[in-house]
Specification:
The complex is a heterodimer of chains A (173) and B (408). Chain A is an all-alpha fold and 173 residues long. Chain A has helices at residues 3-24, 28-48, 52-77, 92-111, 130-138, 144-165. Chain A has two domains: 1-87, Up-down Bundle (Four Helix Bundle (Hemerythrin (Met), subunit A)); 126-173, no CATH class. Chain B is mainly α and 408 residues long. Chain B is built from 15 helices and no strands. Classes of the chains: A mainly alpha (173), B mainly alpha (408).
């Protein structure tokens, strides 16, 4: 086993276990912190794949912004930060069956994929260039359309949130 | 390769040869040397901080017409070492109701988030930790971990002042990150790369000449990111006691303290690297070790400027701070980026003098426009004077007014 594989296994174990803890933990803030740990683990996996851009953006966007937003929202909106209700409901068994079937299906289809056995190869210098990603996102034969659609979606969300939060001035009588 | 001209790579080379001649594998030697380098940088930075604390207190004293530390050693130079030894012997107090893991993780994360920035800084042409191609983004992302540390401290302490302080701190840090990130696009545009090494290499003429407005926005934002005066709302003593670190004692408090001072110096380093040309200077190509000296001198100058601002300017109120960020800096940053891109694209890069002139004129126009708009805006909307309700005071003429009000 190489060092890379060892680090991958540790990172994967951290991601899976902290995702599990994030779902099962009773204190909301703890759930959010476990979620942060899971996101950091994913960033480590990105770094192992040599996509440093994604690794850094993962930390920047998810840990630096979204996780902090989640923590803020839970702290500001909930009076009791601890839940005491039941953690299972009637659909638990059904969900478990469906999830296991999907997981087994995924494992099966991945095993039949011929490249599953191949090792990750180190990227060449021109593939490491971030500029390639930027060109792919803006080139017309690349991903320009999805990129623009996402931008418009985000802009709409931004305007929508401003509209919702905007306080109309009461007309003085 | 000469030891005097370029000591660090010489030592690394010598160590590699030595370890290889002992029959160790090449991978192992590389890993070992990276590890040694990381430990040395962290240790050096932390020890340097004791000197920084002394210097800051001494300079601050002079600015405010005091003496500063003057008891331990000549000019009080060993004061921080004495403080450090004292803090080692202090008790760790765990208040009732704390959340153990976040409470103890926060100080470590705070220091680590600052030290991690040093991993990507090029200290000279040949001395740098890691030359990743997204260095600028890395610095900002690591800042996010620092915010996480503050939230952990505020939440784990089980203290409402700590929580309020953490909320304020994070609100401030997140807000000022916005114009900072926007403005950082400009050095990326000029150098065509997000790696810090390439950015420094591109600055034969420092970027402060090309983009003075962007440079100023970045400077203001990095002061705000440090949480120092005039942006020191996160530890406004009169309102929050001490901010998010109120429940910490002993070495854990010391780590927040170290993180604070180190962060200030680190942002001076980052500013030097991105806008002042880092290690660039005359004669660097022949004698790379000069680059380290240039870097240090520039950084200390920026740091001194930050100290001068810290010790002379009074604190903003929170609405003023937010207004400065969202109503002035963010729009200005957006306009600067668009304008710089247009002007820079319009003029071919070979005509350096014309390019600099055009960019400077554009920046000047932008600056005057912004100034004009701020002035008219503040004339149209006069600042509301915020006062508390009238309370009885130890002055008879005010006391009688207050009594009249209570009588009604």
């Amino acid at each position: 086993m190489t060092g890379m594989q060892l680090i991958f296994l540790i990172a994967a174990a951290v991601v899976v276990s902290s995702a599990f803890m994030s779902v099962t933990s009773r204190r909301m803030i703890h759930a959010a912190l476990w979620f942060v740990l899971a996101l950091l683990g994913v960033a480590v996996i990105y770094a192992l794949l040599e996509v440093s851009f994604f690794a850094v953006v993962q930390v920047l966007v998810y840990v630096g912004a979204i996780a902090i937003l989640i923590i803020f929202a839970t702290m500001l909106t909930r009076r009791a930060l601890e839940d005491h209700g039941k953690q299972f409901n009637r659909a638990t068994l059904m969900t478990l069956v469906i999830v296991s079937v999907i997981f087994a299906g995924l494992v099966f289809s991945l095993r039949s994929w011929p490249q599953i056995q191949s090792m990750t190869a180190p990227l060449s210098a021109d593939q490491l260039d971030v500029g390639v990603l930027g060109l792919a996102l803006t080139a017309p034969d690349g991903f320009a359309l999805p990129f623009e659609v996402t931008s418009i979606l985000l802009l709409a969300a931004l305007i929508g949130s401003i509209y919702v939060a905007y306080e109309r001035k009461e007309k003085k009588k | 390769m000469n030891f005097i001209y370029d000591p660090v790579p010489w030592v690394i080379n010598w160590l590699t040869q030595l370890l290889l001649s002992w029959g160790l594998s090449e991978n192992f030697v590389t890993t070992l040397l990276y590890l040694v380098g990381a430990v040395l940088i962290c240790l050096g930075a932390m020890l340097f901080t004791t000197m920084l604390i002394w210097a800051e207190r001494k300079i601050g004293g002079r600015f405010q017409d005091r003496l500063g530390p003057n008891r331990v050693g000549p000019w009080g130079i060993f004061q921080s070492i004495a403080d450090m030894l004292k803090i080692f012997t202090k008790e760790y107090i765990n208040p009732v109701g704390i959340d153990k893991i976040p409470f103890n993780l926060a100080p470590i994360l705070a220091v680590a988030a600052v030290l991690a920035v040093w991993a990507v800084i090029p200290f000279s042409q040949t001395v740098f930790g890691s030359n990743i191609n997204v260095g600028i983004l890395f610095i900002i992302a690591i800042g996010g971990l620092g915010e996480m540390a503050i939230i952990l401290a505020g939440f784990g302490s089980n203290n409402k002042y700590a929580l309020l302080g953490a909320f304020r701190a994070v609100a401030q840090l997140i807000s000022y990150e916005v114009p900072m990130v926007i403005v950082l696009l400009i050095p990326v545009m000029f150098s065509g790369s997000m790696g810090l090494n390439d950015i420094v290499q591109a600055q034969t003429i420092p970027f402060i000449v090309y983009a003075p407005v962007a440079c100023m926005i970045f400077f203001i934002c990095s002061i705000a990111e440090n949480g120092r005066a005039p942006f020191d709302l996160l530890e406004a003593d009169s309102e929050l006691v001490a901010g998010y670190n109120i429940e910490y004692s002993g070495l854990k408090f010391g780590m927040f303290f170290v993180a604070d001072f180190l962060h200030a110096f680190t942002s001076a380093i980052v500013f030097t690297t991105i806008f002042l040309g880092g290690w660039q200077g005359p004669g660097v190509e022949q004698i790379p070790v000069l680059g380290g000296a240039y870097m240090l001198i520039k950084t200390l100058l920026v740091y001194f400027l930050m100290l001068a601002i810290r010790f002379t300017v009074p604190r903003f109120r929170i609405d003023q701070m937010m207004a400065l960020n969202w109503k002035i800096l963010t729009p200005l940053a957006l306009v600067t980026v668009v304008m710089t891109a247009l002007v820079d694209k319009a003029i071919p890069h070979e005509m350096t003098a014309i390019r600099i002139g055009a960019l400077l004129v554009a920046n000047l126009i932008l600056w005057l426009l912004a100034d004009r708009m701020i002035t008219t805006f503040s004339k149209r909307n006069p600042v509301q004077v915020v006062t508390g309700k009238l309370r009885p005071l130890a002055r008879p003429e005010i006391l009688s007014v207050a009594e009249k009000e209570t009588a009604q």
